[in-house]
Amino acid sequence: MILSGKSICPGIARGIAHVTDARVLLAQALDTPSAGNPQTEVERLNAAIGRACVELDRVQRQLSGRVQAADVAIFESHAGLLRDPQFVQQIEREIGESGQSAEAAVSRIVSRLHSGFVASPVTLVQDKAADVLDIGRRLVRCLTAAQPSEAEPDRGTVIVAESLTPSQLVRFAHRGIVAVVLETCGPKSHTAILARGLGIPMVSGIASVCENIPQGTETIVDATEGRVIFAPTASEQAAYEAILVRQSAEISEEDVAPDAPVTLDGVRVRLLLNISDPQEAEDVLKLGADGVGLFRTEFPYMDRDWWPSENESYQIYRQVADAIEEAELSIRLVDFGAEKCPPYADIPINRNPSLGLRGIRLLLQREDILQPQVRALARLGRERPLTVLIPMLDSLDTLEATTDKLCRIVGCATREQLPFKLSAMVEVPAAAYLIDDLLPFVDAVSIGLNDLTQYMLAADRDDEFVERYHDAMQPAVLRLLSQVIASCNAQYKPVTICGELAGDPKLTGLLLALGLRRLSVSRSNYRGVIRSLTHLSVRSMAGIGAEVLKLTTAAQVRKYVAERLTGP
Ligand code: PEP
Ligand code: MG
Known about the structure:
Strand content: 5-15%
Structural class: alpha/beta
Helix content: 40-55%
Distance between the termini: 39 Å
Mean pLDDT: 88
CATH class of the largest domain: Alpha Beta
Low-confidence stretches: none
Number of domains: 3
Radius of gyration: 25 Å
Strand order of the largest sheet: 1-8-7-3-4-5-6-2
CATH architecture of the largest domain: Alpha-Beta Barrel
Bound molecules: phosphoenolpyruvate, magnesium ion
Shape: globular
CATH topology of the largest domain: TIM Barrel
Number of helices: 24
CATH superfamily of the largest domain: Phosphoenolpyruvate-binding domains
């Protein structure tokens, strides 16, 4: 059976399907140990119910007007059951009587209800059995925050799931999975970014795949074409052989070191890598990149059971530093919040995650998270040049508070005495508008275009429903971007762009025309950007940046870029 979806990370792989569906999740939940006494478990349960209701509310809002009212009502009924005192009391009683974790109690009650529904002679009730499982799955997922306790996949498996959080993907990647097939995943979500960074072929947008594919099905994933072949027939196997030939051609291209990042007219661009996992740092020397422009440090916190100590963090940063030798290194303070939270984190779940407590604002309130990381970074900074990136900076007030705190943690009097350089991440439009006021107090700037676009255009980068509005080609975004670049260049402060746009080879010319000379991209885009650079001439771009900024629609920008700023 061949199913088509959307390519999230190209690549071809073959393996055995590991379906992470509700029943597997509920069965695993039975083994979750209790975190403390029954009272604590009941509190966890209530917090999870709150979170699940917020999720359901969001789903309903997203669907209303797009699907039939009856379909929206399904989610309303799910929320109704979650708020039903009888249902909640049953679980609470189970926790009290069994002394087990909230996860185990939810699993037991939901399984019992499910069996009752299945056995009912009334078809209407039978039909609701799947909903009960769905509610249980959601509740267990909310209980375990970002990381449900699932059966670990074996090496060589293809994960088939409704959706994956970044932490699940990290965990699975470390177990050696070969590909991922999802029902939903935003192409600019962190899960997608991570898959590209780790080079895990990923296809998304295949509706009901979890329900339709039995556990253990042989699977071929052609994520380059966005196709998945389940239980391949003899002829499909043969077609796969052809795909394999194509893959080996791609692999042999991978063996050849790319050219240097130099334009047709000899302008040397600094081309760095975005990494999320220390393993990815090994590509820096292999590709001849100028270093790591963004190490998203949240991900090493994911595949663990508890916060890393200062020394553990230092070892991770040291591993990256060793892998890249003398090359440039920028490490970001953790940007927790939104969907990037370690499973054990007691970080509040915000009603609107993107606008809730996250990034540096969270760190300023959570010295227990900030201090060990900063100490580990300071240790590395005393051994080699290092830049520390401040995520989600919004104002000079926050920058001052951050600098004071960093100085206090490290034990120095001024920013200049810190054992690392400081870079402001420009991701919040307010910081972009204030750039001239921020620049005197930082050594560099990193533009996070994923978030800058999200906040500028009020379009959630993880939400597939507003995907078309999350468009960095909108003139409003480009004009703000250009102001930031111009200010940094005027004040001789290095400015690097590190959002996903920086890696789109079709847009390399536009970024050069706007004055950028430092790009940090994911490994999967590195060669494409080099190819673009070698076809572009900076000399011929005089005045082009200004012309682009006069355009008034994203469509005009795209057309202009295709005609004037793209190599052959
Ligand atoms: C960005 O927002 O563009 C960025 C680089 O940070 P992240 O994608 O990790 O949020
Ligand atoms: Mg960001």
